[in-house]
Each structure stands twice: as C-alpha cells, then as structure tokens.
Amino acid sequence: MQDRLWRIPVLTTLFVAPLIIGACSSGGQSSGIAQGPSDRALEARVAAPPDTVIQRAWETLRADGITPRSFQRSTGDTANVASMESEWIYVPNVYPTAPLGSLPESEKYIKMLFWAQPFRGGTVLYIEPIYDPTDLPTEPTNWARTRTLPSAHPAWQYVQYTAEQLARRMEQ
Questions:
Q1: pTM to 2 decimals?
Q2: Which residue has the higher pLDDT, 46 or 7?
Q3: Which of the pair, 121 or 126, is modelled with greater confidence?
Q4: Domain coordinates in residue numbering, the chain
Q5: What pLDDT is stored for residue 79 in this prediction?
Q6: Residue pLDDT, tens place only, 10-24
Q7: Rounded Cα–Cα distance for residues 111 and 122 (Å)
Q8: C-alpha 11, offset from chain centre
Q9: Under 8 Å between Cβ of 147 and 130
C-alpha cells in the first residue's frame, strides 16, 4: 500500500502527478464506482476539500470534451465523500499522440473513476483508469470485464496528461 501513496501537503506540489502515474502496475479487475477504489487505484493526498478536488477533476475532463457520466455523494453525507465516473473515453480523440498503433479497438477506450475522501485537513483522491480488454465498451458498464489500466499500456499517456491538467487546476 505504501508504494501507491503520496503525501501532497500544499496545492502547488500536486504537480508531482507524474510520480503518481508510475504507481499502477499490472491490470487487475475493477469493482466499479459503487464499490470504491481497488487496491490498484492511484492515491494522492491533496490540501483541498473533497468537493473542490472532484470539481477540479470534472473541469479537467470537460476541458477535453469528456462528460462525466455520474457524480455522487454518499447518502446522508456528513463526511463530504464524493465520487465521479467518466464516460468511455476514446483515447485517439482526446490524445492523438498516444502510440496506440496496432492495439485492438477495445483497448483504445478507457474510463476514469475518481473518489475523494476527507483526510486530516485535506483529501485523499483515488484515480482508477479502467478498460475492457475483451470487447468494445458498453453502458451500463459490465464491471466483470473491466480491468485497471496497466501503467505500461500506451493509453496511460492520457492518464498522465489528465493528472497533470488536474494538478494545474488545483494550483488555481
């Protein structure tokens, strides 16, 4: 667990996102937005409240023309816990320089899952990029077929780009 945890005490240090990006190893099965992050989700500590962090993540996706599919707060939420799921993202449309080459078409689609939970003066942000290695994506998502996107996957470059854009928005 320690190898996927970063402490980010001030907003201006969130630009260490490239460090976060290297954390994800081989792709494991995702449990979906309702179940919370898997043990393979990226994790960062951010000096901002959960609502602000999820809002900045939403803005980051919208800047690329991506519509968040769902945004949720826990029922009866007094702890300010929020989550967000993107639509399926066709990586060649949003990051044309990603070296996707001969990958099957199904592997060119990813979905980003975000969870923000309060933690001692800030937020723990979990980011889990997923894909369906077996078929083109569908809605509703067939969670049994999704896998966490491995950091060696060429679409990971878009995940890194998104994290960098989120870091810039957190500095504003």
A1: 0.77
A2: 46
A3: 126
A4: 2-171
A5: 61
A6: 333 333 333 333 333
A7: 25
A8: 18
A9: yes
Averaged pLDDT score across all residues of the chain: 78
Tokens of 139: 């809605």
C-alpha distances in Å from residue 152, one per residue of 30, 110, 147, 159: 17, 14, 13, 12
Phi, psi of 14 (to 5 degrees): -65, -15
Condensed to tens digits (0 to 9), the pLDDT of residues 77-110 reads 556 788 899 999 999 999 999 899 889 999 999 9
DSSP letter string, 58-117:
HHHHHHTTPPEEEEEE-TT-SS--EEEEE--EEHHHH-TTS--TT--GGGGEEEEEEEEE
Interatomic CA distance for residues 163 and 172, integer angstroms: 15
Q: What are the structure tokens assigned to 44, written together?
A: 């960062």
User: Structure tokens of 68?
Assistant: 């968040």
